[in-house]
Amino acid sequence: MNPADGKVRRLGLRLSLPLFAQVLSLVLLSVLAAEGLNLWILFQSPQAPPDIYLASEVVTAIQKNAPTPTQNGQPLLVRVLRAGDEPRQGGQRFERFLADEVAQRLNRPSDDVRVALVLDPHSPARQTVGLVRRLIGARRLQHGENPFITGSFTVGVRQPGGRWQVVEPQRHGLLTPWQTRMLLWFTITALALAPVAYLFSRRLAAPIAAFAQAAERLGRDPNAPPMKLKSVGGELKILVTAFNEMQDRLGRYVQDRTAMIAAVAHDLRTPLTRLRFRVEGVPEPLRTKMTSDMEQMDAMIGATMAFVRDATQTGERCKLELSSLVQSIADEMADTGADVTAESQGPVVIEGDPIALRRLVANLLENAVKFGERARARVYTSNATAVIEIDDNGPGLAAADRDKVFEPFYRGEPSRSRETGGAGLGLAVVRSVARAHGGDAVLENLPGGGLRARASLPI
Q1: Which end of the chain has less Cβ packing within 10 Å, N or C?
Q2: Is the pTM of this model over 0.90?
Q3: Distances (CA, A) of 381 to 94, 305, 346
Q4: Structure confidence at residue 55 (pLDDT)
Q5: Largest alpha-carbon pair distance within the chain?
Q6: Contact assessment for residue 369 and residue 393, using Cβ atoms and an 8 Å cutoff
Q7: Statement to judge: residues 90 and 136 lie in one domain
Q8: 432 close to 455: Cβ distance less than 8 angstroms
Q9: pLDDT per 10-residue tile (average), the chain, 459 residues
Q10: Is 110 inside any structural domain?
C-alpha cells in the first residue's frame, strides 16, 4: 500500500468537492463561526458603566491643585493653561448649571468658571449619559445637591494672574478596560477556532503532500507504482490522473528508445560479421588494422547491448547495508591483487537495487585501479545522504572533462584500446544508477594529486 494513501485515509478525507469549493467553504465557515461567537460575547457581556464624578470632587481637586482620587477609581488631574489659552464653555443648560455650582462652592464669580462636557460618540457610555441629561432636563435644577458629571469634561477656573486652572478626568490609555476585555474575548475566540482551521487546512493539504511524495518517489525510482488516492474529486482527481498518465508515457518513451538502441546495436553485428569474412583477402598490414577496428566496434556494440540490458532489467529494490557492499567488492578485488581498501564510519542503510549498486561501486573501483594504480574507498553519511568516495593516485582530469567522462563512449584518452580505456560506458553506468536512485555522481581533483569519485545516494 502506498504510504501516502494510508496517510490520506487516516485523515479521513472525503474530498469529492473541487478544491475551490473546499477553500471557499473553509473561509465562509471560519468567518461565520467567528462572527457568531463574537456576537454571543457582545450580547452576554455587560455594558461598560460610565465614569461618574461628583461636583464636590471637582472642587476638592481645584482647591488642592493636585491629582485627586475619586469614588469611581479614576483620578482627576489638574493643570494650568499657558498664558492666552482659555477653556471652552459649553452652551448646554446642564453645563451652565455645573459652572454656577462650582463657582458657588468656590465662592467665585460665575464668569471665573467654565464647564464643557466632552462625549465621545463611540463611547459605550453614550446612551447612559444621554439618559442622565434627559432626566436632568426634565426637572428643575437646584444648587447645593452635589450634582454629578458623567463621561469626559473640562472645568476651568480663572486664576488671579489671568491664567486658567483646568480640572479633567484622567484619560484612558490606548484601550479602555471594556475594550481590553472585548479584545481578550476576541483573541480567545480566534484561538478556539485556530485548531479547527488547522485540521481543515491539513485535510486540504494532505492530497497535495501525497502528490509531492509520489513525484519524489518517481524521481528516485522510474518503476514506482502509479499514484492511487481514494475518494478524490474535482481538481485533485484531474491532477492524479494527469500525473499517472505522464508517468506511463515517460516509461513507454524510455522503453521505446532503449529498445531502438538495442535493436540498432544488434543489427550492426550482421554487417560486421560479413566484414570479418571479407577482410581475410585484404593484404597485410592493412588487414591487421581493419581487424583491430572491427574488434573495437564489436566490443562497443557488446558494451552498448549490456548497458541497454542493465537499464531495462532493473532489479527489485530493498533495504541494504552500503558499507558491507563496498567492503565485499573491495575485498574481492584485493584478492585478485589489486591495491584496493575500504573504510566506513558505521552501518549505512539505504533502499536500492543491490545489483545496480554493486555495478556502480565495481565500476568506480575498477576505474580508480586502472587509471590511478590504487583505490581508497570510504562510506559515510551527510545530511540524510549516503556518500561513497573513492580516491586514486592518477593524474586527475581537466575541468572540461570531469563532466564529459560521464557521457556514453566518451574518454579523455584519445585511444580506443580496450586495454587502456575500455568502451567508455563505465562512468555512464555509474551516473545512470546514481540518478535512478535519486542521487548523483561527480568527479573532483584532489589537492595533492589524484582523482576523487563521489556517488551520493539519498537515505
Answers
A1: N
A2: no
A3: 86, 34, 9
A4: 82
A5: 145
A6: no
A7: yes
A8: no
A9: 44 51 74 75 67 83 84 82 85 83 87 80 45 46 71 85 86 67 77 76 74 74 70 69 80 71 71 76 78 76 68 73 92 90 89 87 90 91 91 87 82 49 73 85 89 90
A10: yes
Give the 3-state secondary structure of residue 425. Answer: coil
Burial of 73 (0-12, 13-18, 19+ CB in 10 A): exposed
DSSP β-bridge partners for residue 299: none
Question: Which residues partner with 158 through β-bridges?
Answer: 164
Euclidean distance between CA atoms 218 and 2, whole angstroms: 13
Among 340, 122, 315, which residue's Cα sits nearest to residue 223? 315
CATH number of the domain encompassing residue 292: 1.10.287
- Cα–Cα distance list, 219 to 210, 224, 437 (Å): 14, 9, 8
- For 454, list phi and psi in degrees, rounded to 5: -125, 125
- CA–CA dist 353, 342 (Å, integer): 21
68/162 Cα distance (integer angstroms): 24
Q: CA-CA distance, 169 to 171, in Å (whole number)? A: 6
Query: Is residue 237 situated within a structural domain?
Result: no
Q: In this structure, are 166 and 203 located in the same domain? A: no
Among 269, 67, 239, residue whose Cα is nearest residue 169? 67
State how far the Cα of 392 lies from the Cα of 367, in Å rounded to an integer: 9
DSSP codes of every residue in 82-111: PTT-------SHHHHHHHHHHHHHHT--GG
Cα separation, 395 vs 405, in Å, equals 15
C-alpha grid cell, residue 35? 462572527
Only one residue has cell 568527479, namely: 443
DSSP state for residue 226 in the 8-state scheme: P
Residue 113 to residues 62, 69, 118, 302, Cα–Cα distance (Å)? 11, 22, 16, 114
Give me the domain span that covers residue 128: 52-175
Q: Are residues 329 and 447 in the same domain?
A: yes
Pick from 251, 355, 272, 266: nearest CA to 305: 266
Q: What is the DSSP string of 55-89?
A: HHHHHHHHHHTS-B--TTS-PEEEEEPPTT-----
Using the Cα atoms of residue 256, residue 261, residue 263 and residue 264 in order, give the sign of their dihedral.
Answer: positive
Grid cell listed for 352? 536500492
Evaluate whether residue 420 is within a structural domain. Answer: yes
